[in-house]
Structure formats: C-alpha cells, structure tokens
Design brief:
The protein is mainly alpha-helical and 65 residues long. The chain has a single domain, classed as Arc Repressor Mutant, subunit A. The chain is 63% helix and 6% strand. It has four helices and two strands. The chain has helices at 9-20, 25-32, 36-45, 54-64, and strands spanning 47-48, 51-52. It has a two-stranded antiparallel sheet with strand order 1-2. The longest helix is centred in the N-terminal third of the chain and has 12 residues, at 9-20. The two termini are 24 Å apart. This is Transposase, IS30 family. InterPro entries: Homeodomain-like_sf, IS30-like_HTH. It holds the Pfam family HTH_38. Residues 4-46 form the Transposase IS30-like HTH domain.
C-alpha cells in the first residue's frame, strides 16, 4: 500500500499562486511535481465562495501537529 502525505502550506500557497496566475491544473501539477488529480482535489476542497482557504487549512495543520 502506498503512503500518502498531506500537502504542506508552502505547496498549497504555490498551487494557489500558480492558479491565480492563470496556470491550468495540468501545468500546476507539472510545476509542483504532483499528479493532476491531487491538484484538482486540492483546488476543489479549498475553494470558497469568497476565495481560497489556505489560512484556515494552515491553522488546522498547526493544531494537529
């Protein structure tokens, strides 16, 4: 079975920045070195009506570490 790792805050910021700059999911995946599905899930899970949830994800991560 494959081990899975959570994305780091830096990776999330990088994904968000590339998306905001107009990169497509496939281009982001190539740039970050991840599967396109990972990028797709991350964008879908962390999208709110008013924008990106990186800050709240970071707080949750820090609480759980």
């Amino acid at each position: 079975m494959k081990d899975y790792q959570q994305l780091t805050c830096e990776q999330r910021y990088q994904i968000y920045g590339l998306r905001k700059a107009g990169f497509k999911q496939r281009e982001i995946a190539n740039e970050v070195g991840m599967n396109k599905s990972t990028i797709s899930r991350e964008l879908r899970r962390n999208r709110r009506q008013r924008g990106w949830r990186v800050q709240s994800r970071r707080r949750n991560y820090e609480i759980n570490v």
